[in-house]
Amino acid sequence: MRVAVVGAGIGGLVSAIQLAHAGHTVDVFEQGPRVGGKCNVSEFDGCSFETGPTLLTMPFVLDDVFRRVGRRREDYIKLHRVNPACQYRWSDGSRLDMPFELEDVISAIEGFAPGAGVNARAYLEHAREVYEMTKDVFIFSPFDGFMEFLKPRNLGMLPRLHRLRFASTLHRHNASYFTDKRLLQLFDRFATYNGSNPFKAPATLMVIPWVEIGFGAWYPEGGMYSIVRGLEKLAIECGVNISTECRVRSIEHAGKRATGILLDNDTRVACDHVVSNADVYVTQKHLLGLPVREPRDLSCSGVVIQASVDVQSFGLAHHNIFFADDYEREFRVLENGRHHDSKATMYVSRSCAADGSLAAEGRENWFILMNAPPNGVSAHLDGSAGSHWNGHDEHIVASAVQRLHDFGISPSIREYRIRTPDTMATQWSSFRGALYGASSNSPLSAFLRPRQKSLDLENLWYVGGSAHPGGGIPLVATSGMISADLIIESSSL
Ligand SMILES: Cc1cc2nc3c(=O)[nH]c(=O)nc-3n(C[C@H](O)[C@H](O)[C@H](O)COP(=O)(O)OP(=O)(O)OC[C@H]3O[C@@H](n4cnc5c(N)ncnc54)[C@H](O)[C@@H]3O)c2cc1C
Predict the structure, then answer these.
(1) Which of 15, 251, 397, 421 is most enclosed, with most CB atoms within 10 A?
(2) Residue 340 pLDDT exceeds 90
């Protein structure tokens, strides 16, 4: 069989690896100059900067990608624990360094807010239970919607379904365990890992803090792009053909079957299956030309400032969060679609703290991230008229610097680059720059998320953050494995 993969993000690469290993001819077409999609790098002023992910959770998923094709992940990607996993700061001067190990986390929380350790343990135990109950339904298998609950293997879940707390929000659930406002905010923030709003998203998202705390926070030697380099090497070894700077203009189809793809250079490639790693809505609307409706509630986008900074001692960790004083307001501002909130929570990653080779002597490579509304415009798909973001760079940097000042931190910035929702919409063709397609703000989101098998064409498959099971490296890698299994299964029928 011949399979064409549109896009070389992590989901696309993982799908291609599994299919090529099974003996199929696999061609990957990536519009960008390098593979990796959102997990990428840029370099300036002697420093290497991440463009998207800065932290790996659930490392066993990557292990699985390699194991399934008879390799060992550690021969391609070396992972190290991040300890502390994250440093959290509040404007009242308080600070919590979250350790790597679960027991140390409980002790650190108890030391931070005496009496809270017991509840933190109970909360994480509840979250672990929900993760164990749901992982094979909502993450590691093809998803069949409500039908899942009627499958014999899942019937045992029914009496305990209330434990998922579908009807409560993450914030309300967290508030039932944490009275300390800072801890409540800390656990609420995990909703943003999949671009959601903790004041709306279902409490089931409690599994996110569990996977970070229970399975740990990890970082690869050489930076996050080492994950992509490892996958690219494996793909080539498995015989995948990868073409970069090769944009797919459309997926050609006749009746209910995809017949091939048409590249921007007018080349046609015939194939038996198409795997789209592009955003699902963008695939349907722009690559298939279908009259689909825009997704209404999108996951959030982000503004990233990559800055080379003179080395100064601020007592920061690798990963640092500076919390907004009013978290609920931050999400209201995001929903109102304003372009930038100068009082927002800010995340600063300094990967040079984990791997000194990522910044030149005397410098640090700061990656500053703030949530942003999904209002980007794509130069490819929309033209650049109507951008909310043009011309705001200096203001964004000035307000980020001011925000850090509020926490007593005054970095001396040497050079910077800014990435806005427009960059994300243009560079990765993510609709409106949303990081993960539709948000998970409703209890029905998991049920409505597009599945791997397209409903429009019988040999078109979706992988990546806007499809089941969702965004983040472990989940998109999982979508790659699920899609490959389904294609292999469908071709052996
Ligand atoms: C700022 C930010 C921070 C993040 N932090 C984390 C984190 O700490 N940990 C974590 O696990 N995850 C994080 N993520 C999420 C993670 O990066 C993504 O979920 C994951 O990398 C997306 O993989 P994907 O398979 O969906 O493909 P994508 O990365 O979306 O790649 C899709 C690829 O398809 C290509 N493409 C699209 N259309 C076409 C076309 N027509 N022709 C050819 N090519 C096309 C694009 O150029 C792109 O390369 C973060 C993301 C961002 C942006």
Answers:
(1) 15
(2) no
Query: What residue ranges do the domains of the chain occupy?
Result: 2-33+244-295+445-491, 40-100+216-221+300-435, 106-213
Ligand 1 contact via 302 beta carbon (within 6 Å): yes
Q: Tell me which fold the domain 40-100+216-221+300-435 belongs to.
A: Polyamine Oxidase; Chain A, domain 2 (3.90.660)
374 lines ligand 1 (CB under 6 A): no
Tokens standing for residue 287: 């690559």
Residue located nearest, by CA, to atom 51 of ligand 1: 52
Whether residue 433 has its Cβ less than 6 Å from ligand 1: no
The pLDDT tens digits for 183-235 are 999 999 999 999 999 999 999 999 999 999 999 999 999 999 999 999 999 99
**CATH label, 2-33+244-295+445-491, candidates 3.40.50.10490, 2.60.120.10, 3.50.50.60, 3.30.200.20:** 3.50.50.60
> Which of 186-221 are b and which e, b meaning 16 or more Cβ less than 10 Å from the residue's Cβ?
bbbbbbbbbbbbbbbbbbbbbbbbbbbbbbbbbbbe
CA of 247 to the centre of ligand 1 (A): 16
Characterize the bridge pairing of strands 319-322 and 346-350. Answer: antiparallel
Q: Which tens digit of pLDDT belongs to each residue from 356-412? A: 999 999 999 999 999 999 999 988 788 777 788 888 899 999 999 999 999 999 999
What is the reported pTM? 0.97
Gap from CA of 38 to ligand 1 centroid (Å): 3
Atom index in ligand 1 nearest the CA of residue 477 equals 25
Kindly report the protein residue whose alpha carbon is nearest to atom 48 of ligand 1. 37
DSSP classification of residue 211:
H
**Ligand 1 contact, 10 CB (< 6 A):** yes
Which residue, by CA, sits nearest to atom 9 of ligand 1?
A: 53
Select from 232, 323, 227, 304 the least CA-distant residue to 32: 232
Ligand 1 centre distance from Cα of residue 435 (Å):
8
237 phi and psi, to 5 degrees? Answer: -60, -35
Could you tell me where the DSSP H helices lie in 407-453?
421-428, 445-448
Average pLDDT, the chain: 95
Q: Work out the percent of the chain whose per-residue pLDDT is above 90.
A: 85
CB of 8 closer than 6 angstroms to any ligand 1 atom: yes
